[in-house]
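Let's practice the habit of predicting before peeking. Look at the sequence and jot down your guess about where helices and strands might fall. Then scroll down.
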Amino acid sequence: MANIQGKTNAGQASFSSIGRSIPRVEARAKVTGRAEYVHNLRLPGMLYGKVHRSTLAHGRIRSIDTSAARAMPGVYAVYTAADIMKLVPDPHYGPAFHDQPVLAIDKVRHVGEPVALVLAADIHVAEAAAQSIIVDYEELPAVFDEIEAMTSKAVVHEVLKPAGTFPDLKHLKDKRDTNIALDFRLRRGDAQKAFAEADHVFEHTFRTQQVLHVPLEPFVTVADPQPNRLDIHTASQSPSFVRIEIARLLGWPESRVRVRVPYLGGGFGAKLYIKIEALTAIAALLAGRPVKIALTMEEQFYQITKHAATLRIKSAVTRDGKITARECEVWWNGGAYADIGPRVTQKSGFTAPGPYDIDHVAIDSYALYTNLPAAGALRGFGIPQLVWGYESHTDMIARALNIDPLAFRRKNILKNGRPQATGTIMQDAGIEKVLERLAERMQWEKPFDHGQGSIRRGRGMAIGFKASISPTTSVAIVNISADGSVMVYCGTVDMGQGSDTAMAQFAAEALGVPVETVTVVHPDTDVTPYDMATLGSRSTYHMGHAVKLAAEDARDKLMQLAQEVGLSAETAPIPDIFRKKYGMQAGNVVGVGSYIPTYASPDAQGQTTNATPFWMIGATGAEVEVDTETGEFKITRLVNLVDVGRPVNPAIVETQISGATLMQLGFTLYERMDFDAGQCTNASLADYKIPGIRDVPAVMENEAVDMVQQSGPFGAKGVGESGTFGVSPAIASAIDDAVGVRLTGLPLTAEAVYRGLRANAGKPLED
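Done guessing? Here is the structure:
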């Protein structure tokens, strides 16, 4: 049996558990089909809920006829907002604004919005009954485009109601007749003066499309009413927030709400904050029986999406290629409900100038309400949209000035010790190192074969960075049992990213015990302590710190116990310490750790000395072949490099980079939600194409560069998003390098390339 041996120095080179590619702790349970998922949960007396959804993008509800549904045999209950408000007088929720009703009240704001709920013991009966409900609407003017939303007479919300969580939203309280849910502003230096004095000024506009998270496990929640309490089993990335928000809605103390989360079949930001939990919980309380609501794949298209965005970017550049000023305007299409969109607007918005050393910066970033399904966090938290714009812009400037794209980046790259646009000094950020390693892997400075005839080849590169959301809190408990085994209690949700394995490795390293002796308990708000959420690649850093601190606390207590009984914790097996103390195998030692990083709120100009506890860096190099006769292209090579500090589990890091890259590849080449008057016309996996195995590039290389995050637990930081950053602009730049066609909107299609080729030849196609 192991002894207690702590290692705490992030810079030391030798670790027993950190840096090992141990198998995932849940691997056997998943491959044998024994892993727990909410979809598999069945409770005695459980009812199934099916939702009747709006067919209109914006309209007042004149009447709801539920008579046919109520009369259908097997229907237990039919609820509308009027029924909900008997239990919850103000049934609005949301992390940034309390703007989203449990069921539509008075009007609907997007196609697919829940209007009524049917409960039945048979899911097919519930579905048929939901379809029989008839709603009469008075149609209202709608707005779908984020730019138009700035000045549109169509107003999605008559009055704004900030939730009170975020200080930068308080000035919007009770503001009326606006679609602007946040207007973030950052100023550094004197951009106007720099533009007036510039040798060159370049301005371009880029757009990204609305896309979907597509976790293969759709949203699912089971609510089970108990005497004087409510148990919620849900596929959520933020169980602590779910408990807090459900308790707030019901006017209950948090202790009366229990939220349990097993494994997730993917999340990617979709399952953050409140989604279907509020509707399921209130329905269960009204019915007095367990209720399960599981969305179909089509219904996911109406629940939460990724922001479409428009980025206008203007740069002042000297003759020799130094960027002296940059001006950015970003418009985020937040859909009908804010969700966490205002945080995307601010936390990503301030990185809009890119990873470059620019003295004069002006940024305006707007979160806009529209009459489309709500948009929220999706792997990258707005950064992939921004990198698409600023890295495409960077290559367009380099091409216009006849400067090599790598040389242009080298001249302007932001280095450690220099301030970012917010004024925060860059530390432990491998921007320059990642760029140089990418150039080496791509053999960028050697001759490149651009092909001949109808098949032309090109290459491109892109680099991006992201700040971690801050400040946020994580708490962990580590329990050492009398036999020497260890239990870790934390609220981090394992949704396929391998967090259970990483937390086990952190605890094992801090205690000096074999990682195989560590078990991680799944989130259960009655058992596991508070964690803000599993999002934004924060868990490795934040919860990793909390677990490390809790393990060190437990280690110190065990060493004190050993001292009491006259043993040495560093030499005596752990069971011997407990036997000596209690005379048998009994007792345990519990350590607690909490972590919240330091943070300084931005001033009125967006300036702060401490914007983030760490930076995530990702870069991609792409090589393509383009058929000049058809516009068809294929990616022959993708090289993806990231700075993750010290990798906790290199094999998991490798799969995280691959997964992030392939997900962004889908958003780059295939995925787009198509709308007609607010109705998504491709809301199925038959029509909405995600990448398959045949879409994986023939050569895909991944690497975590050699870095250490000095402030991180054992030198580590997150990786889940970094692989998304540079994919889209690297591919677009490679196409431009091959055939001289620069695309400025996503997705990149053969048709768009062909149209560009025709336009370049002076033979544009008519629409």
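How did you do? The radius of gyration is 27 Å.
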